[in-house]
Amino acid sequence: MFQFPKICSVALMITVILLFLSPARAEQPSTAIDSPVIEVSIKDVVSNPGEYNGKKVSLEGKVTKVDYRNSSKGEPFTVFRLKDSENNEVGVYVEDERLPLSKGDRVKIMGKFWKEKSYFLYKIKNVIKARTVDVI
């Protein structure tokens, strides 16, 4: 007599084991909270966005534009543009606070870089969700 359910459960178990043992799983980039921060220039990030996509970066630049907004839930956040001496530029946002920044401030930031980030109908390129922003 043919035992279809038993064969399916054995096949499923073998598939799950192979997925966990496959080498591709070990090669996936780490997204752990304790992943290292990469010191980088704005020029490097803008020139090679795929290399830094989804990674924690630290960089310095001059604030060129600051805007304070509220999320759809009413929570405050700060959005600003950061430029280097060669006019390379990235967007930066900080959730849950209004930072006391002014145009022309030099800052050092640390956060996660995104080659492209979607917000509702908008797609923004070269943006960093900053965890720290220090005026230097």
Description:
The chain has 136 residues and is of the alpha/beta class. Helices cover 24% and strands 44% of the residues. The chain has four helices and six strands; from the N terminus they run ααβααβββββ. The protein has a five-stranded mixed barrel with strand order 2-3-4-6-5. It is globular and about 35 Å long. The protein starts with a helix and ends with a strand. Mean pLDDT is 81; it is low at 15-32.
Describe the SSE topology.
Blueprint lengths: L3 H18 L1 H4 L11 E2 L2 H6 L1 H4 L3 E15 L5 E8 L5 E7 L10 E14 L2 E14 L1
Parallel strand pairs: 1-2, 4-6
Antiparallel strand pairs: 2-3, 2-5, 3-4, 5-6
Q: Which of globular, elongated, flat, extended, rod-shaped describes the shape?
A: globular
* Biggest pleated-sheet summary: 5 strands, mixed, barrel
Secondary structure: number of strands: 6
Radius of gyration: 21 Å
Measured by DSSP, the beta-strand proportion falls in: 35-45%
Helix content: 10-25%
What structural class is derived from the secondary structure elements? alpha/beta
Instruction: Quickly count the helices.
Output: 4
- N-to-C CA distance: 77 Å
Q: Flag low-confidence runs.
A: 15-32
Output the strand order for the largest sheet: 2-3-4-6-5
